[in-house]
Amino acid sequence: MQVAGITTPQEVFVASRDRKFRINELLVIDDPHQGPLIGEVVEANSYNRFIPLSIEHAFSDAHVLESLKSLGYSIDEDEINIAKVKLMSEASYPVTTGSYVHLPGFAEVKGFLIKGSREEGLLLGEIKNTEETARSMDEDLKGLFYIYSAGKLDKTKNVPFILDLRSFQQYPHIGIFGGSGSGKSFGMRVILEELAKHNIPTVILDPHYEMDFSESQEDIPKAGNFKKAFSKFQIGEHIGVEFLNLSKRDLLALLSAVSPLSEAMSSAVEVLHRRGDTYLSFSSRLDDLAQALEMGRSKIDNALRQDMEPSERERFRRMRELLEDYQNIPLPSVQGIAWRLRRLYSSGLFSHDIKPVKEAMMQGKLAVIQGPIWLLQVFSTYMLSNIYRQRRDYKDSELKGQIQGDYFPPFVIATDEAHNFAPKGRETATKGIITEIAQEGRKYGVFLVLATQRPTLLDETVTAQLNTKIIFRTVRGSDIATITEETDIKAEEARRLPYLPSGDAFVSSPLFGRTVAIRVRFPYTRSPHTQNPIDEIKNHRASSEEKLLSLISQHLPIYAANFARAVEDINRDSEEKYEVRTLKETLDALVEKGRLKKQPSPLGDIYM
Ligand SMILES: Nc1ncnc2c1ncn2[C@@H]1O[C@H](COP(=O)(O)OP(=O)(O)OP(=O)(O)O)[C@@H](O)[C@H]1O
Fold first, then answer.
1. Which residues does the annotation say bind ATP (predicted)?
2. pTM for this one?
3. Which of 247, 464, 530, 556 has a Cα-to-Cα distance from 292 of 20 to 30 A?
4. Is residue 392 located within the same domain as residue 494?
5. pLDDT tens digits, residue range 277-301?
6. Is 457 found in the same domain as 357?
7. Residues 420, 514: one domain?
């Protein structure tokens, strides 16, 4: 392999007669004047005499041709492999044409490939096309995980891609971008498994109900057990919000997450919510005021003149007071607040608190929060503000040398569909807290892992703070443009984005100082949704058939003449609601499948 053509201090062409180049592989150029220079292949091509060098293409540059000839290549006969190579760091002078080039041993390029220790890093996958270099790699870095590729699962043979945990302090936030089916969810799962391995407290917002780590991939030997590494909470069922602790700001955020509040409603909440309010006290105040506004003063006074139960009288008195204090609040605003509040209440939100989440975090677990996206927004606004504040207060008081309250650890927040939580050009309940953490979470050790299919729809301030970006296959032009703007991805790589296979990604990270092409390792656990829908139908059918058969077999033989009795018996023993007609159909279907026999008799058919 030799350098050919006109060179620059940043970029060269390398030619080889017998070795095909692979994109992203590293090469060492032995420049006689500048010593070894490391470069990365960004374009790889092969030519032979049957397909002449094209006129438009850069490689056809007359200088490259001339240079190849003078290096002893016969461009009319030989197959020639040519690579465009970008140097990792700029050379002092243009590279010497004709310099020999060799494939690096691990020691020569270790500094470019490995930026963290195996013990203290997240093992996300392998660096593409580093197989030859990996042969001379330290033994303890070899075969650390499994890669699934071309229908086969194998131990990795490449150099591992390790994201150093300690580097989070410097580069705290991770973005995962990629279109549908590109490998984003697998990538997120791998990151979360790695965080779990290190017992890093992590809160996961899971709008897709897919973040379950209890089922291991069967094909991976010794996949490890993640069952105890995570706890799953459903909003309204296991966790919720303590109304008593809500500030006015929290309450406004919660109500507006149900449906945006008008100006009048916001000001009404400001004046109506009082310190120490419980759900009951606040909601009855709203109901009383709504009724008072509806009745008007004279009707209330009239009512008070009548005979009534003391508790009833007390209520009318309260209504009159409320009317005096808040007569300027429009009735529709009070009603608007009341229905939003009722919606929150009926979701179960106010019946629980976030203690279980905090406990899971204190144990260094993954705390998976599940709920429909609107409720997740409502709840996470409150929860993230709460735990972030707790961590901030702890850290601030530690810095001031006056620790108050209990220890609260650094933590990670991870979510898919991040553009719903911090959308561009639109306010949502969660956006404020996510932007705040994106901007100053680093100081407190609070880190974000945000995945989205649509980076273009993610708030720019947040996107700009995502220091490490993992970019999977992306087809949409506008998203490729955003990615190109927001990362150091090279033009050649951006062109490849629409064609990346699922699970391949570019990692743009300041730690590496360049974009690294990786294949994400195969996760140890699997999502509960991995079953193919067609298999699901078949399995369900087979298991219902078994259930049916074992139910019916207890009542065999069934005589057609005595169907009514059989229906009664079967319905009594099960939750089924057969009628004579449906039982007959079911039995006939089982006969057709060969699971039952039907024998004619003078008194009618007998099923056995
Ligand atoms: N690292 C990987 N190794 C092997 N196969 C992978 C990998 N990543 C993804 N795949 C394959 O691609 C499929 C889709 O991946 P995944 O579910 O992660 O996509 P996604 O980007 O999250 O899509 P969506 O946004 O639609 O959920 C997986 O079911 C799997 O078959």
1. 178-185
2. 0.80
3. 247
4. yes
5. 999 999 999 999 999 999 999 999 9
6. yes
7. yes
